[in-house]
Amino acid sequence: MTEPTPQSSLSDSDPAEKKPDFELMTPLQFVPGVGSARAERFRKLGLRKAQDVLFFFPREHQFPPPPTRVDDLHEGKSATFIGKVIDAELVSRTPGKSIFAAIIENESGVVRIVFFNQPFRAEQLTLDRLVRLSGNPKLAGLRWEFTHPKYEIIDSEEADDAGTGSIESVYPLTEGVKEYELRRLTKQVSEVLADEIKEVMPAELRKAAAKALGRVDLNVGDSLPSIATTLRHIHCPPSAEALTAARTRLIFQELLVMQLALAMRRQSLTGRLRATPLDCSAQIKQRIIRRFPFELTGDQLRVIETIAGELQRQFPMNRLLQGDVGSGKTVVAIFAMMLTVACGHQATLMAPTEVLARQHFATLQKILAGSKVTVGLLCGSLGAAERRETLQQIASGEIDLIVGTQALVFDIQFHSLALCVIDEQHKFGVGQRVRLRQGGVDPHCLVMSATPIPRSIAMTQFGDVDLSTIRDKPAGRGEVHTYLAVDGWKDRWWDFIRQRVAEGRQVYIVAPRVGDQDMGNEDRGGGEGTGKEPADPIVELSDDEAVAAEDITSVSRTYEHLSKEVFKELRVELLHGRMKADAKQAVMDRFAEGDIDVLVTTTVIEVGVDVANATVMTILGGNRFGLAQLHQLRGRVSRGVHAGHVCVFTDGERSPEESERLKVFESTNDGFELAEADFRLRGPGDLLGKKQSGLPPLRIADLSRDIEILQVARKLAQELIDEDPAMEDESLTLLKEQVLRRYGERLHLGDGA
Ligand code: ADP
Ligand code: MG
What we know:
By secondary structure, the chain is α/β, with parallel strands linked by helices. It has 4 domains: 1-61 and 173-198, DNA polymerase, domain 1; 64-166, CATH 2.40.50.140; 282-470, Rossmann fold; 480-668, Rossmann fold. 37% of the residues lie in helices and 16% in strands. The protein contains 25 helices and 22 strands. β3 and β4 form a beta hairpin. The protein starts with 34 loop residues before the first helix and ends in a 9-residue tail after the last helix. The protein binds adenosine-5'-diphosphate (ADP) and magnesium ion. The site of adenosine-5'-diphosphate (ADP) has 17 residues, from α11. Residues 534-680 form the Helicase C-terminal domain.
């Protein structure tokens, strides 16, 4: 968040004020009341100087429970009670032993409080005092009693306030550091030093932000609070409203700084990058479109128009095309590639796995049959000689379209690369495309993703990427029905599968693991011979282990069980990521030909496998898959005219989170809804992989929660940069410094930005 600005001079403060005995840069041990032993412990929390304390924000805030009425008291449930002392008595029978008891009354009735051997209570809890007490009440006879409650004496005004009590800050702790020490320290330091921090957001900007936030129902008054007020209130909130305003300011500032960086980057890239303009006549475009054996959907045509427009520019397109599996993204990509070739340049299509690359290669060959366009394939299983020849043909320009796996296509020599399409990519770091720059020219870039990106991610990690979305499905697609299996369903489901196979359909059965070891996403990028293939072989079942054949999470066990027992009469085959590439291909081909009824497999089929006749899917151990993965899997059975059926089985007890996820999965077929739900359930880090995001982590803002603030910040940032691209206005100097300090290096903003 706000990075502290060292303050050089304190001398212009009001001379009447007592000069503070410590400053921003004062080492903590010299802050009154800290000392070296404590300072040593605070160090473990990253607190070294006084100013660090200002920016050591509470993890959360605890709101005092609302005061309880007598009729609402319950034994064993802690309560806060506010009332007046109407009777008090200290009784000492033997020396050193005493009982102090008092009766506290408010309009709802009376309670009794008792203290043993604490005679000094009698001096504090005198008649007519107003107190707020909290503790665990017990029924003693007909009266509620608090033994040794916590209490504080309050004045009547505060009591009228329904006893809001003080909101307590809760700090992250470390060994040897107590909550109360941090509360005391942050209070002491923020009271003295909050005014010393320089304000980076000019008053006008704070007002504009408050107004814009108000429009989305985030009310912080006429203006976001100043940094001094914010720092005081975040540590010691005087009220819930003040706390909200302070937090909103900090979140807003963090997001604004990020969005300013992204806006500056967009701005500077527009001026700096150079791409090959691809300008085609409307006639050529029509000719390309006519090559497709079907009518394009409205969304496809719309996106094609957008892309064709962008490809004409000198400035590289950087577009993310998102759409559910099967929505027809690849068709759009093929259009862009053919347009590139029609303009005399090369295009490449990168896929995450060899299986997918081969599939794209086949699709392209089919569509281009009888044309002069040449397509080349680059993948791991190519022989050395073949590979050398392909590379040579790419360099000489004999090959127009290059399909391959990502690892192989990066870093090769092209003749004239003008467009790069990246398929099924959802882990996309800022700055990827730099790798494909050749001779100072960047290719236009189109990324396809079937994992819809939540809005907030699109606005941050993908900050300089334009977004296109295909929502409508090609006509004539069957619906998909999703079921969550309940106990005892298996036999019925196996019967259902037999019926569908009898009708001529094909079936997937997906298990999460290959062997006995949990493989996670074992198939991503598998089959490339990267040397990273998992070492342990597929487990052979011994007689002993056969008992556990019902272990549904292992694909090999499931295969054994299904092929030998359940579906003896059907053609059952096994497919997983640890098979050799050609063996895998052979199984896929036979499945595509309809020579296999039931394919027992892992997530290797998650991406891109396209067999329209396969309409039934069983997902085993479904609780082990993420939402995005489940949805990808479901996409495999929504490709043809027949209705699809997906049944999810789980293993073991489901955690509440797993249940929630599966319920969401069952309830909607809309990838966008699922993505937003996933984001809510898992948070942003997981979705993108923290390291992949390319941006420094946020400290206060939470993208899954603060979407409205993010939108406001983005809009204001864009307006600021449109008006003042280099943030040269004097009032923005400090803000600009913060943007550069935090993002400058990461986003290459330093020079000329
Ligand atoms: P995605 O890449 O979005 O998963 P594809 O482009 O691979 O989707 O399309 C999925 C299937 O639908 C392919 O078999 C493709 O040929 C077919 N398809 C795409 N667009 C249309 C359309 N407009 N009409 C009919 N079929 C289409
Ligand atoms: Mg696809």
